[in-house]
Amino acid sequence: MNTIPITPDLSEKRQRQISFFNLKEKVIESLWLICALFSVLTVIFILLFLFKDSYLGFVQIGILPFLTGMTWNPVAAIPSYGIAPLIVGTLLVTLGSMVIAVPLSIGTAVYISELAPPRVKLIIKPAIELLAGIPSVVYGFFGLMVMTNWLRVLFDQPSGESWLAGSLLLGIMALPTITSVAEDAIRSVPQEYREGSLAVGATRWQTISKVVVPAALSGITAAIILGMGRAIGETMAVMMVTGNSAVIPSPIFNVLSPVRTLTGTLGIEMGEVASGSLHYHALFGVAVVLLLITLIVNLGAVLILKRLNAQRPASMFLKNAPALVRRGLKLVPLLVVTVIIYAIGGIIGVGLLACAGVLWLVAQRLSPKTAQRIAFFFLHLGVGLVLLVLGIILFDIVSHGLPAISWEFLTTAPRDLGRAGGIFPAIVGTLYLVAGSILFALPFGVGAAIYLNEYRMEGYLTQMIRTGIDLLNGTPSIVFGLFGFTFLVLYLDIGVSMLAGQLTLGLMVLPTIIRTTEEALKNVPSSLREGSLALGATRWQTISRVVLPSAVAGIITGTILSIGRAAGETAPILFTAVVFSQRYLPSSILDPVMALPYHLFILSTNVPDSSQNRYGTALVLIMLVIGIYSIAIYLRNHFQNTLRY
């Protein structure tokens, strides 16, 4: 019931009123459609401006030499623009992070979904969410100050900055993403599967490993792909710990070799390059390659998740296939894994794989109860390791950062390049950036969610809009920064300013607001809408007076999560909004600002003898972001426990 019908027996005045209401409904629906299409237009503009600025680079360098060239040295007498070492570095760091993150994440997801008592679950889930909430620059700071030193001492190397350090750090950062999605997939497996398995005499571990996990395999695969997308698109943390040497490790499995990633190259060089130069266009070519890789990875995960329940289980196919085909198909994953491990780890990697195979064969001979005890031990060990990592990060930052916290530190401007003084302009600048980004993104996000959930049935238009939202959500933060730089700073001539940073951050958090708002609207019972419409309310009256008030808790939670993400991001504001040191607060939105993430990055990488203020800045930033996320978690749990329809 979108409009009020006009019948001949109504008075002329009443007919005009009804016509006005109908026109109002159409205008409002059109407004929400524009909000929904905004994400699609944003993706189109990002692609358009990236390709525009990379086109000359592709033409002058050549696409094939650009992709396969083995040397990246734009400042040499004869510049070289081959990004093969950057692609290899990105893949090595990403694959290494998955080796670390996947077992821990899936084990943690299994434990939370299948084994954890309710009280323990209330501890572990917020801990995982806090891991997700720690800003990437804080991870990078911890990696630079602690992890690289551990690796340097452990392996007796001149420096611990290497692709091993990058893999360890990215593994920790990807862990919350994989865990959350995998847990949802495991939890969605029907309870009847578990009950049926236990009823025929299977142990709990046999039920988990041979029934539940295989049934959730598509969702777990999507979780791993999303984790890979998170790792590929990370900028600040990788840039701070990988050594940033644009070479392919020799041998390739030398995990202590420094590498450089695609994102790291953009973060390091974009701020120093002359606009319009070949180097400038080549960097945008790097951004195009990065964007295409991440979009393909994230879209693959989205498609898997969407078809999770529609796909025919692989086990049914294998069951109906001939015995020889079944055996051959079972060997394919082993062959693929062997080739990958040999390419990365050489004969040592294959040897380790063989040892793992022997252990697996031994495990097959164990009794079910013994196998269950061993499996549960490792699951508990993995969860304990995840909590230990969180504890180490927080302990290191809190213990070293507390001595720096004082009234002067929080209320004065920096002095001596940040070695002395405080961070007040950075705190205020961060709040300005966050407030502006939310004011920009919230109307578009809520409007898009209203249109998708309340006005439009599933069809080609909604599929296009949802695809645009998925693409926007999968875009690396550094690409948002480049788009903000080329479109807002240069094309619209806004300049490096608070406004450019606010708009860029707003575009970045827009998908989060849309998704959380849409989920909140979906949770409102249809009976409330039907009752309102039955009483004669229009569609917009129903939405504005019934649906939105009922969904306000979820909308607030999504907004707070977006605030937390915007407050902790560095890459989007790297080229659009920030300066390192500023004694006075900005007087207008066209002035540049200081920001806590950028201030911490510069202190960590460019200002020696500033250890105490580094830790103090990191502590303030992490307290700000974790505090915001904690409020969101509290509100979510509060309304889940109190809201009843």
Automatic annotation (TrEMBL):
UniProt-listed PANTHER family: PHOSPHATE TRANSPORT SYSTEM PERMEASE PROTEIN PSTA-RELATED
Major localization listed first in the record, in broad terms: membrane
NCBIfam families in alphabetical order: 3a0107s02c, phosphate_pstC
Gene Ontology MF terms in the entry: phosphate transmembrane transporter activity
One biological process term in Gene Ontology: phosphate ion transmembrane transport
Pfam family, one: BPD_transp_1
Domain ABC transmembrane type-1, residue spans: 87-301, 427-632
Protein name: Phosphate ABC transporter, inner membrane subunit PstC
Cited InterPro entries: MetI-like, MetI-like_sf, Phosphate_PstA, Phosphate_PstC
Recorded superkingdom: Archaea
GO cellular component term, pick one: plasma membrane
Family statement drawn from the similarity comment of this UniProt entry: Belongs to the binding-protein-dependent transport system permease family. CysTW subfamily.
Keyword entries, A-Z: Cell membrane, Membrane, Transmembrane, Transmembrane helix, Transport
Localization per record: Cell membrane
Its membrane topology: Multi-pass membrane protein
Membrane spanning residue stretches: 31-51, 58-77, 83-106, 127-151, 163-182, 211-232, 280-305, 334-362, 374-402, 422-451, 471-490, 546-564, 615-635
